[in-house]
Amino acid sequence: MTPKELKARYRNDCLAARDAIPAVDRIEKGLAMVTHGGDTIDIRPGEIVSGFLPIRSEVDIRPLMARLRERGARLCVPIILDRSTIVFRELVAGAPLVPVGFGTSGPGPEAAVLDPDIMLVPLSAFDRSGHRIGYGAGHYDRAIERLQQKGLNPRLIGIAFDCQEVPSVPAEPHDVRLDAILTESGLNFVSEVIG
Fold it and tell me: Is residue 139 a known part of a binding site?
């Protein structure tokens, strides 16, 4: 099986496992993530944290984002401008949300565009070495590359349920490793040693 075929298989299997989690359990697992990450994720007041508003069966991290805002973070969410470009618009309380692509909503074009210091990254599958499989469009890989070209190096925290872990993601040269992974079981930092 080629790396591309294995990634597709992992993506399909893990998304099916995620879809099978009852909605009530997804809520509870999301709240557990607040317990594990809300006060543990290292942020300084004024740092910019990109989160996301859930689509399909993704974990709802709005409670986690609210906790990080209470601790002084500025929040933003990804907006898909076209098939290849994501920007991060500031998410402020009370601002109206509009459809912004990929089945999600977010702040409109009047919102400030920010460069995140920390990115809470949704994913389809992950492994313990910090490799992730996204949804297949490469939006986050390109967004991270664009930030790095600007001299920025955001900390990347993968957000997933435990059932989305796989033994080993076949990493390709363009793949960017996560710094940590937050699931309902805890916040796990990725080792600097790649096994």
Answer: yes
pTM: 0.94
Question: How do the domains of the chain map onto residue ranges?
Answer: 3-189
Contact 151, 172 (CB under 8 A): no
Q: Is 4 annotated as a binding residue?
A: no
Is 36 labelled a binding residue? Answer: no
**The predicted structure's pLDDT at residue 133:** 94
10 is in an annotated binding site: yes
Contact (CB, 8 A) for 143 and 114: no
Residue 67 annotated as part of some ligand binding site: no
The residues, any chain, with a CB within 8 Å of residue 142's CB and separated by 6 or more, are 84, 85, 86
Supply the CATH classification number for the domain 3-189.
Answer: 3.40.50.10420
Output the six-digit token pair for 63. Answer: 């409670």
Q: At what angle do helices 62-70 and 23-37 cross, to 10 degrees?
A: 20
